[in-house]
Specification:
With about 425 residues, this protein is an alpha/beta fold. Helices cover about 30% and strands about 20% of the residues. β8, α3 and β9 form a beta-alpha-beta unit.
C-alpha cells in the first residue's frame, strides 16, 4: 500500500469525482466534528455474506440497508459514494498504540518537546485513520523528567483530531511503589484530573510489580476508569494475582501484549488463560511485534487464549519508533498476521481488530445494519480473505462521513497473454 501524506478525503455522486476539504467528504463546509445533516449514500457495496447493497447514513448512524439500487432511487440530498468493487466492513480500531513515540525512528535522539510530540501524535493518528482505524487508544508515559508534558501534547492532538478520529489516552507512570512511587502516583492522579481515558502503566518496570498493579486498580476503582496494563506476562504467579485482584472490576481490565505467555509451558499457559478468562481480563496481542525495546519477540498464544474464553483483541503497537522502525500501524496487517501466521480464520482475525477491539475500548458494536453507528471501512476486494491479503484501496467512514480515502492503481504493460486469457487489469501502452 503506498505510503503518502494524508490527503483531503473526497466523495462522488456516481464516480469518484468531486472533493472537499479536511472537514469531510460530503461536499459540505461543515467544521470538524459536525455531522453532515444531508446524509451519505454508499452505493453497490459488497458485504461479507455476499450481498451487494446500498447503505444510507445519517446523523452518524446507518439509516437503511437495501439491495443494490433500491436506495439510490430515493431522494437523498447528501453525497453518494460508488463502492462497486469494495467490501464494506465495520471499521477497525487501534487498541494499543504509543502516540508519544510514534514516527521517531531514524531521527537521532527522540525529541520530547511538546510541539514535536503533538505533531508526531497527530500524524500517526492520521496515518492509522487512513488504514481504517477511526478510534485509537494510545499509551503515554507520564512522570520522570517529562512529568505531564507528553500527555498534554497528546491531549492537544486529540482535540485537533476531533471529527476525524477519536484518540483515547492511557497514562503510564514508570514507578508506583516505594519512596520513588509517591511521585508517580501523584502524577497519575494529576493525569486523571487532566482527562485521561484510562489508567495503566508497565508493572514489569516497577520493583514491586504486584504492588504496582494493586495501586492502579485501586485508583481505577476510585475514579471509575478502565485499566490497561502493558506487560510481557512472563510470570504466571503474578498474572494469577492480577486476575484475582481484577475480577469484577468495572469497566474492565486489559493487559497486553503478553508475548511471554507464549513462552510458558503449555499447561501453565493454559491454566493462566483460564484464570484470565474467569476474571474477565482482556488480552490485546501485537502480531506485528512488541512495542518496547526491552521486550523479546513473540506474540501471545492467540488460539489458546480464545479456546479458554479470553476476549482477545489485536493491536499494532509501535509505529516507526525505536521498538519497530518499520511498524505500519495497520489493523488489517494485524488481522492478516493472525490469519496467516497464527491460524485464525479471516473472520476471527478481523473480529480481533474490529468487534473485539471496540469492546476493549468500551465502544458500541458496529454492524452493517440499520441503527448501528456509521463507523465503516470499505476495502477493495470481493471477500474478507482477499481484502486482508491485499487491502490497497480503502475508504474510511467516521460518524457517517468519509474522512479518509486511499487509492492504489496497479498498471501493467500490454501483453498478448493478458488479451488471450481475458485477464482483468489496467494497462498502459507506454510501459515497457
Amino acid at each position: 500500500m503506498p505510503d503518502s501524506q494524508p490527503q483531503p478525503p473526497h466523495s462522488s455522486s456516481s464516480s469518484s469525482s468531486g472533493s472537499s476539504g479536511s472537514s469531510g467528504s460530503s461536499g459540505s463546509s461543515n467544521p470538524p466534528g459536525q455531522r453532515d445533516a444531508a446524509g451519505l449514500l454508499l452505493c453497490g457495496a459488497r458485504l461479507t455474506d455476499g450481498r451487494t447493497v446500498d447503505v444510507r447514513l445519517g446523523g452518524g448512524r446507518i439509516e437503511a440497508v437495501g439491495t443494490a439500487g433500491s436506495l439510490s432511487t430515493t431522494r437523498c440530498s447528501g453525497a453518494r459514494v460508488d463502492l462497486g468493487g469494495y467490501l464494506l466492513l465495520p471499521a477497525p480500531v487501534e487498541p494499543h498504540a504509543h502516540a508519544d513515540t510514534a514516527l521517531s525512528a531514524g531521527c537521532g535522539p527522540v525529541s520530547h518537546e511538546p510541539e514535536d510530540v503533538q505533531r508526531r501524535a497527530t500524524e500517526a493518528a492520521l496515518l492509522q485513520l487512513g488504514h481504517g482505524a477511526t478510534t485509537l487508544r494510545a499509551h503515554v508515559r507520564v512522570g520522570d523528567v517529562q512529568e505531564l508534558a507528553a500527555l498534554t501534547a497528546v491531549l492537544q492532538a486529540r482535540r485537533s483530531l476531533r471529527g476525524l478520529a477519536e484518540l483515547a489516552t492511557v497514562a503510564m507512570p514508570r514507578v508506583l511503589t516505594g519512596v520513588a512511587g509517591a511521585d508517580g502516583l501523584a502524577t497519575l492522579r494529576d493525569a486523571v484530573k487532566m482527562g485521561v481515558s484510562v489508567v495503566g502503566g508497565c508493572p514489569d518496570l516497577d520493583p514491586d510489580p504486584t504492588g504496582y498493579v494493586e495501586t492502579v486498580l485501586e485508583l481505577a476503582s476510585e475514579h471509575g476508569c478502565p485499566v490497561d496494563l502493558h506487560t510481557d506476562a512472563t510470570d504466571p504467579a503474578r498474572l494469577a494475582r492480577l486476575a484475582a485482584m481484577a475480577g469484577g472490576l468495572r469497566p474492565g481490565v486489559t493487559i497486553g501484549p503478553c508475548g511471554g505467555l507464549g513462552r510458558l509451558p503449555a499447561d501453565v499457559a493454559s491454566r493462566t488463560a483460564d484464570q484470565l478468562a474467569a476474571a474477565g481480563v482482556t488480552v490485546v496481542c501485537l502480531p506485528q511485534g512488541g512495542c518496547c525495546a526491552a521486550e523479546r519477540l513473540g506474540t501471545a498464544p492467540v488460539r489458546l487464549l480464545r479456546a479458554a474464553g479470553v476476549r482477545l483483541a489485536a493491536g499494532s503497537g509501535a509505529l516507526r519508533d525505536a521498538a519497530n522502525p518499520v511498524g505500519r500501524g495497520d489493523p488489517l496487517e494485524a488481522a492478516y498476521l493472525l490469519a496467516s501466521r497464527y491460524g485464525l480464520c479471516p473472520e476471527d482475525a478481523y473480529d480481533a481488530v474490529s468487534t473485539s477491539a471496540r469492546a476493549v475500548l468500551g465502544l458500541p458494536e458496529v454492524r452493517v445494519e440499520a441503527g448501528f453507528p456509521a463507523e465503516l471501512l470499505a476495502v477493495r476486494g470481493d471477500g474478507l480473505a482477499g481484502a486482508l491479503s491485499l487491502a490497497y484501496s480503502r475508504i474510511v467512514v467516521h460518524r457517517g462521513r468519509v474522512v479518509a480515502r486511499t487509492s492504489a492503481v496497479r498498471e501493467y504493460c500490454n501483453s498478448a497473454a493478458a488479451t488471450e486469457l481475458g485477464l482483468p487489469r489496467q494497462g498502459r501502452q507506454e510501459l515497457s
